[in-house]
Amino acid sequence: MKAAVFLGPGQKLSIESRPDPTPAAGQIVIQVERCGICGSDIHMTEAHGLLTPGSVLGHEFAGEVVAVGAGVSGLRNGDRVTALPIAGCGSCEWCRAGTPNWCASVQWTGGGYAEYVAAQAQFCLKLPAGLSVTDGALVEPMSVGRHAVALANIRPVSNVLVMGAGPIGLAAAYWSKHFGAHRVAVTAASRRREQLAGLMGADAFIVNDADSMSAAQRVFGGLPDVVIECVGLPGMIARSVEFVRPRGAVIVAGACPTPDQFAPLAATIKEIRMQFAIVYSVEDFQKSIDAMEAGSVDARAMVTDTVDMAHFSDTFEALRKPGHHCKVMLAPWS
User: Fold this and answer.
1) Domain residue spans in the chain?
2) How far apart are the first and last CA of the chain?
3) Is 134 helix (H, G, I), strand (E, B) or coil?
């Protein structure tokens, strides 16, 4: 099979031939039809020590089952699926609860930047007939947003500020409204995604500038009850603490891979609740599938381009710089 292989920081992904995977017991093999490019993948390829050379990234994938390993029930060849890109022991309390990321034997599998990928069947979900493989590849980022918002304990009177207008921030805006928030605003460095934010449920859009604090207070009539940080850059936790109201909540969903700092006293004075969020559960995946099947969210609006394997490395490199794209998909078989 063809796969986009990480060689090392500062080097383009290399399109190489790799052996087709075969399913171990409890696994299936998926023919990848779509895989989204995530900003975290880009960041991981820029730092030394985060990835082993030879790794194949890609964790937002969907496709068709083409092989089934021993002991797998409920899935068969021809099923269209998406999957948590995580493997666990399958039997501990965390795996049984659908949260294998806390399993003592957890493995972050990925591998979606390829024509085929093996996945643990226990953490694969079928796609309804009404959803496309593009929808299926959007289940993962939609689930990240849902998981973060579910931790916020949003009430009908809650005003929510989402920091960041990337796919996770846009998903958080949708789920905030879905969970009953009174008003939702999204902040970003430019207005490029203002229309998308509105489509995903935001009531207002705020550009990060010297007036952004005042703008947020105008939108909400005061400081927001909840700030959901979806940027993952140094300084964003401190900014979230600054923006939230006293006794409000800051949900940190941005995956910042470098050391950061904020003044604990600023959070202490406000008596805020700070909650860190990591990935998702099987339930988050299923609820995201249900929402898209019901038509309550058009996640496909976030997809701004789809590329084939021949153009994938160049596209991946281009996304290191700010641009108009929101979510770019790989279609390995195009």
Assistant:
1) 2-140+280-330, 152-276
2) 14
3) helix
